[in-house]
Inverse folding.
């Protein structure tokens, strides 16, 4: 599975209150949530993010509240992949569950810059800068998580395997 | 090789003799929980799955607590989704306004969690029930929606960090100070994917309320769960509140731990987490005495009777400083009622507090007590991220009820010793 898109850069400990502030949680419609994604931190994000874009961040991305509205808002805003040094565990589950893949890489935030065009092979974890000759490798996604991504998330996965 | 209490509970619920760190298991869920923000999404997932019926209407708790009493039309719609679903599926533990309070306060109070249980909730502070010696962890709405249908969840068995507390607790020091101090040492990502096991002579002497406060904030270090070995104090609480028997497990002497941390509490001052991170922790005497516009006492961290009692002790015969608002929200109708019976509410009102209906209140900045630009709050809640309680240019200082009450009187950040 290949993903190609422009990079949005973020720092360490980006919490779910920053991704989608609680005052917008009076709905669970992802298209409405997407309009308020990073409303306080980067007010231009929702307007400028394009389909296929990639977030590159530091440590503990998605920490804090369990709100699935956070990955839903990011996905509806166009984000197809998030690469971070590490992820908060609830966010990690939530993202895969809705079919938004995540990659863990200790070096990505050091090497990749805002606006870079990145091509990523999810199965191998190879991340390539399209305009420059630079390649990094992320920790590969565990097998059964990768299967879930291919199927489109946990609901599809459960439907596929049955309720037992 | 022996097992930790976390591993024992997970093994039991996966139908295995033993499990170890890193194992992927499918575990049976004793109780599944969701609230008015997370349940609507979970219910949508449940419907998408086409399961038809919930796995067990007696093992699901739905609680209206975040944006109640309904704050606007949209949240009213969300809250109604819960009510409709609960009635349609005959959900036994459905808590509506009037009966409802903060999920993590009322579930133990109503005896729905017992030692040894496995509880999964679509709320990050579900880790609170580790105080009872249960395994409990937060998830998102899709996980919860699937649990509603199948009553099971996949989990990776976490490694455990053992934290031992020794020494003597000083006056005004409670569970909040212990957990803030611990967060200051671990950092907000110090326990990602891991279990925290709270041990030692100090915690064996702590009340259940203090233990709830500590387990509640395990997630602030990134932990999957925070757990105490159940003891006689646990047993007394469970017998008082629940018809459930419970399973009183403890870690084996040869259990394997990923890390250990020893904390001497002797001489510990009340602790404060400065903006904008729960691990930015300092003793209260080292904190700049900055002016405070609002104090909030409540939440799933510190909205229990003993918290209100501590606040009332300090506020008795005193007044909230001019220019500072004090909001107190009892965590449940039962807490509210006892606080009235014991004269706590009258003391707080006399001091100038406003009392809110049992709910999450201003903790997450969506309802009742939102901060304006440039305002600062001292709050007994669990998170002080940028914009958590309102305007992105507002600030939150996290502390226990003693520092919160003292700060309300002083109109600035300060400790109880200054009164």
């Amino acid at each position: 599975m290949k993903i190609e898109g422009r990079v949005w850069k973020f720092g360490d400990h980006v919490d779910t209150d920053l991704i989608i502030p609680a005052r917008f949680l009076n709905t669970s419609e992802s298209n409405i949530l997407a309009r308020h994604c990073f409303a306080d931190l980067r007010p231009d994000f929702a307007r400028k993010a394009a389909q296929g874009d990639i977030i590159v961040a530091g440590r503990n991305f998605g920490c804090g509240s369990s709100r699935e509205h956070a990955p839903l808002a990011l996905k509806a805003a166009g984000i197809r992949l998030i690469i971070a040094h590490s992820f908060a565990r609830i966010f990690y589950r939530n993202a895969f569950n809705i079919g938004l893949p995540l990659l863990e890489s200790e070096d990505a935030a050091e090497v990749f810059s805002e606006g870079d065009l990145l091509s990523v092979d999810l199965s191998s974890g190879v991340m390539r800068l399209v305009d420059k000759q630079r390649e990094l490798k992320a920790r590969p996604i565990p097998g059964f998580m990768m299967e879930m991504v291919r199927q489109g998330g946990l609901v599809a996965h459960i439907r596929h395997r049955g309720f037992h | 090789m022996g097992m930790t209490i976390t591993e024992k509970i997970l093994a039991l619920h996966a139908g295995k003799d033993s499990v170890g760190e890193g194992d992927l298991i499918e575990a049976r869920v004793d109780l599944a929980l969701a609230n008015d923000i997370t349940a609507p999404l979970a219910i949508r997932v449940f419907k998408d799955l086409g399961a038809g019926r919930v796995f067990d209407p007696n093992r699901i708790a739905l609680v209206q607590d975040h944006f109640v009493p309904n704050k606007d039309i949209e949240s009213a719609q969300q809250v109604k989704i819960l009510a409709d679903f609960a009635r349609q599926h005959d959900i036994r533990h459905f808590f509506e306004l009037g009966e409802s309070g903060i999920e993590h306060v009322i579930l133990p109070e109503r005896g729905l969690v017992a030692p040894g249980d496995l509880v999964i909730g679509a709320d990050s502070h579900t880790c609170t029930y580790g105080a009872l010696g249960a395994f409990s962890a937060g998830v998102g709405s899709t996980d919860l929606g699937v649990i509603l249908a199948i009553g099971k969840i996949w989990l990776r068995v976490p490694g455990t960090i053992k934290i031992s507390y020794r020494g003597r607790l000083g006056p005004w020091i409670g569970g909040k100070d212990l957990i803030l101090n611990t967060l200051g040492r671990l950092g907000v990502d110090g326990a990602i994917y891991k279990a925290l096991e709270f041990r030692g002579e100090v915690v064996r002497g702590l009340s259940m309320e203090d233990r709830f406060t500590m387990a509640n904030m395990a997630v602030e270090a990134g932990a999957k769960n925070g757990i105490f070995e159940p003891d006689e104090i646990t047993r007394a609480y469970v017998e008082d509140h629940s018809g459930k028997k419970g399973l009183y497990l403890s870690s084996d002497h040869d259990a394997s731990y990923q890390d250990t941390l020893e904390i001497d509490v002797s001489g510990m001052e009340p602790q404060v987490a400065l903006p904008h991170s729960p691990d930015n922790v300092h003793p209260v005497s080292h904190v700049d005495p900055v002016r405070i516009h609002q104090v909030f006492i409540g939440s799933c961290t510190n909205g229990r009777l003993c918290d209100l009692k501590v606040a009332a002790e300090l506020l008795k015969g005193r007044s909230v400083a001019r220019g500072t608002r004090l909001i107190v929200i009892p965590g449940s109708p039962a807490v509210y009622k006892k606080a009235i019976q014991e004269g706590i509410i009258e003391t707080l009102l006399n001091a100038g507090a406003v009392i809110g209906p049992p709910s999450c209140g201003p903790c997450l900045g969506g309802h009742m007590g939102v901060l304006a630009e440039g305002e600062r709050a001292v709050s007994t809640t669990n998170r002080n991220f940028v914009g958590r309680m309102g305007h992105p240019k507002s600030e939150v200082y996290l502390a226990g009820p003693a520092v919160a009450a003292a700060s309300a009187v002083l109109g600035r950040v300060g400790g109880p010793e200054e009164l």
